[in-house]
Amino acid sequence: MNHAADRLPAAPLVLLVDDDPMILGLLARTLEAAGLRVRLASSGAQALASLDDAALPELAVLDITMPDMSGLELAAQLHGVPHMFLSANDEQQVVEQAARSGAVGFLRKPIDLAQLLPAVRAGLARGAEIRSLRAEEQRLGQALREGRETGMAIGLLMERHRLDQVSALNLLREHARSSQRRLNDVARELLAAADTLNTLGGAPRK
């Protein structure tokens, strides 16, 4: 058994949404032949249902004009999945609407298969960049929140025990090490305890 092969990352998953079964089949065959995984949906409702049952795709390729739900309406409900559009209408207004929705690409029907794969690969690359930026924003936000809580806990220790900043930080770190917990978890617990004591004493912590 080749265990190394078992650890290879799965090919990118592309969600294809179009109410024309011939176009859907053509897109699927082209992308699968290039080694990509595809998930098919013939309507916006079916596409949304597929998101509830499985992992999110790395890219969604959406027909703009569909009977039950337009591609633009669907894109707004894709939980942040990067998307690109297919449309026979390339009027400026439509292209601008697609751009405002955050689309990473736009392909005009009838589809030129020579352009399909490069456009999808570019969309996947742009989608990966977007996910990376979102993850970095989340990490930064978490770090800022944790830094604020730790700073407040240090200030509380300085006030209650008449310590300088370094001594208060060292005290907090020592407690975190001895209890084998993260520094911010200890800081959050200290602030919660102070809130409880202040509430009982009628003086909420500011």
UniProtKB/TrEMBL annotation:
PROSITE patterns: ANTAR (PS50921), RESPONSE_REGULATORY (PS50110). It holds the Pfam family Response_reg. The keyword Phosphoprotein applies. Gene3D superfamilies: 3.40.50.2300, Winged helix-like DNA-binding domain superfamily/Winged helix DNA-binding domain (1.10.10.10). One of its GO terms (molecular function) is RNA binding. The keyword Phosphoprotein applies. Residues 13-124 form the Response regulatory domain. SMART domains: ANTAR (SM01012), REC (SM00448). The modification 4-aspartylphosphate is found at D63. One of its GO terms (biological process) is phosphorelay signal transduction system. It comes from the Bacteria. Keywords: Phosphoprotein. Residues 130-191 form the ANTAR domain. PANTHER family: RESPONSE REGULATORY DOMAIN-CONTAINING PROTEIN, STRESS RESPONSE REGULATOR PROTEIN 1. This is Response regulator.
